[in-house]
Every structure is written in structure tokens, then in C-alpha cells.
Amino acid sequence: MFCQPGPWSETKSQPYEAHKFSPFSRLYWQLHMNSRRDFFRLTAAAGAAAALPRVSAQPLPDNPITRENAKAGTRDWLLTNTRIAPATKYRCPWIEGYCSHASIRAGEALRIFVSTNPASDFTLDVFRLGYYGGTGGRLMHQFGKLKGVVQPEPEIGGKRLRNCQWEVSAQLEIPADWPSGVYLGKLTELREGVQSYVIFIVRDARKADVLFQCSDNTWHAYNRWPSQFSLYDDGKAQWYWGGGVSVSYNRPYGKYCQIFDAPLSTGSGEFLLWEFPAAYWLEQRGYDVTYIGNLDTHADPAGLLRAKAMLSVGHDEYWTIEMFNNVKAAIAAGVSVAFLSGNAVCGRIVLDEKTRSFERIGVFGPPGGTQEFFKMSTLKHERPYANELMGAHSTGPVTGGADWTCVKPDHWIFAGTGMKKGDGIPGLVGWEYHGDPAPIPGLEIVAEADTQSSPGKPNGGHFTATIYPGPKNNIVFNAATVWWSDGLSEPPGYKRPSAYVSPKGPDARVQRIMENLLRRMLA
What we know:
globular, disordered N terminus, 9 helices, 7-stranded mixed beta sheet
């Protein structure tokens, strides 16, 4: 899947081959293309929506999210000059950093650790991501010129742990008026203008309609920084699926290592890949949403009860048993949950708070499973099983793709979509999915199909999207695909994935299904 690392060079890896232009022309070209793409995508979406039964337009509600998104946005948060060292395949040593907190509250001090090699002054601009009139972000704070130093690469510790202990480069007390959200710090070294990100979540304690859980455990599980040191690297195999390997939050995010080239993932984990389109769509439509990370689900069960609906988004693979039990208890208490994700609640991990690290110790699935992914056979498979929480769970052959195919058109989830039995949303299922539905009373399969290794070539898998009732008129929905958010929106900087099949972008039917779900969950 991967090329062998070549000799060290300064080859640039930038979106849209922007390296062919001057910095000014590059930025203009990128914004111009984004605008054109948005125009044609919105035009197509509008055409599709016109074919659906119309609902009366409602003004956006007054809540912290609509007030925040009424403020002036900017696309300056986008990186325009990215670079990866070929010897590492994933690392940007010219400028890279990480934060002291995965999520943080107002009044707490965020410490930011940055390394520049060669040493260079740098700037750090902090943006909140959202809708903001289609720009995707708002500038929140500028540090100005900061002094960069070469920070030491950490030694390889037990279980291959790389735990950075860098000197603090900048500190910020989170202002009281910063709303919950996902924040990017845009790092720019001033010798050559090379850029990367740091990322953190601002969380709050207020009651809200929607709780958006970022999948940041999984971001780190696949983070190979500095080179081949993810949860999938044992020093021998390039893709290792057993235990005995630990990864720490105390390190930069390298560029994403799977299925496609994503330069904007340098420093930002996987948020921009699978999760941002859902957040962008929610904020565009004025939903009252607040944000947390996986560690908050682990440590703050009471915090889950302050929302009517909780969303697991994207590639939410790695959970602790505490996360599982806390979400199970929230459902029992009446919180609705939507798993807008694939391969979710699959790997069971245990945390080490001292090193801010975790290790894979098991699988939330039955021994043997359904077409067990044999490389995970060395891990413990024991209850609780993920499908007992989500309705369906990961099953062999684990990867594949399909059209998201309606099998229960009379269900309220399809109201207003015009979908008939057998109608499919092209390529929306991938590249990992859920199947093997649990025998939960009242559970319904609303979409299902055989999965494929490529269009027209079945690979023996089968996805099932499910919904089941909670005990207090709440619901649990399982979209059964990593790529669900692709059908909701296409924000600036978004790059469409393609593996096994290819999703087609914003689709009025996916948007209507989401509206139907949220209307029921928030009632």
C-alpha cells in the first residue's frame, strides 16, 4: 500500500498541486477553486432537493451556535504550504506541534509545544471551525512572532511509546467567550513559510441539544509520527493488529496514513477527513451543538446527560470499557445516540494517564465474530459486544464499500426522501462499515447491501444500518459507514475519499434523513 521511503528532500506535498504557483497565486487559485466547487456542488444539491417534498423554511433558532456563526468568518485557516519529509512519509519537521489538552474548558490554560527544524521564528493563529457563511472558520487569536527551537525526538520507550516532553512554546488561557468547538492552531515557520496544524477541542458544561463527540482516540491510533509508530506498528509488520503497543497524545499528528493523500491532515488528526462535514452541516442549519472528545466520554458520564442527542462521527474505532458503559447508561437515561460512523466501538483500549497514552487490549465483539478479521485473533474477544450498544458492529472482511440501500421505505427515517425499496445512495458505505445486527427488541434494519472490493465485485461482506428504541422514547441509530458525513456537506478544504467505492458528496436524501433523525431525537 505504501511506497518505500526515499532519500531526504524538500519535496512539497500540497493540495491542488498549489506548489506550482507563487504564494499569492496559490492562495487565490485555491480559494477560486473552492468557490467554483461549492457553487456547482450547491447547485447539484439544490436540484436534488427540489425533487423532494418541500417543508416550510424556518428561521434559524437563537442559540450560541447561530450567534457564533453570524460572526465574520475566513478561509485563512486553510494551509497553503505543506511539506512532508520523504524519509518519514508522515512528518513535517520544519514545523510541528501538539497541545497539552485534547479538550479544555474556558479559564483553563492550554500549553502548545512546537518544534522547528531548522530553528525558525514562527506564527501561531488560532481558528474555530464551523460554518461562518461557508468559510469554515473564524480567527480567534493571533500570537504574533514566536521563537522556534529544535525540540528533541523522544526515545523509544516500552511498548514502542513515543512520549514527547517538549518545552512550552506558547500558552493561552481559554477566554470565557470562546464557544465549544473544534479549534485549529495554524503554525507557519518564517524561513520558508511551511505550515502545519495543532488541534484541540473547547468543551463546556451547558445543556445543549446535540453533543458531538470527536473520534480523537482513533486519530492517535493511526498517527504514525515520527515514522511508523502508530498502534499498528510493532517494529516488524507495517500493519500489526495485536497488543503490546502504546501511543501517546503527547506528540504531533503526522499526515494521515491510509487510503488517500490528505495534506491538511498534517497536525489535525482525522477531523477534517470524516468529521468536519457533519459539524459544518449542523452549524449551517443552526443546531445547538456542543463538542467533546473520546476522553470526555471516558471520564465524564454526567456530561453526556446534558444533551438530548449524542453523535459518534466518522472513524470512531477505539473505546475504553468506561466509554462503552457511560454511553450505555446515557441511553438508559433517555439520551438518543446516532453512530454516524463505521468500524466504531471495535478496538478496546486501556488508558495510562501518566503518559497520556493507551494500548489496544481487546475487541468489542464475539470470539470468532462474523467472518472474523483473522489478524485480530490474538486479542481478547469478550462481552460487552459493540452491536449490543450500536445495533450492529464491525464484521469481516472489515473493509469494503456499497451503496447505502433502502430496505424499509415506509420507515419514518425516509419520510420526504422519495426513496423506494432498493434505492441506493451511491458509494456512501465505506471504507469500513457495520453489520451483524444484534437481537435487540424493536431493532429494525433500514438499509443493507452486500459490500464490494470494487464496483461489481462482492467481497463477502454485508452492511446493515439499524435503528432501535431506547427505554424513554429515545432512539439509537447506526449509519454503518465511516463516510456518512460525505452525504451532508463539502466544506472548504474537504477532500473526497475513494477506496473500494467512491461516495458522491452532499445528497439531499442523506440530509433529509439526518433532519428526520434529529427531529425525532430532539423532540
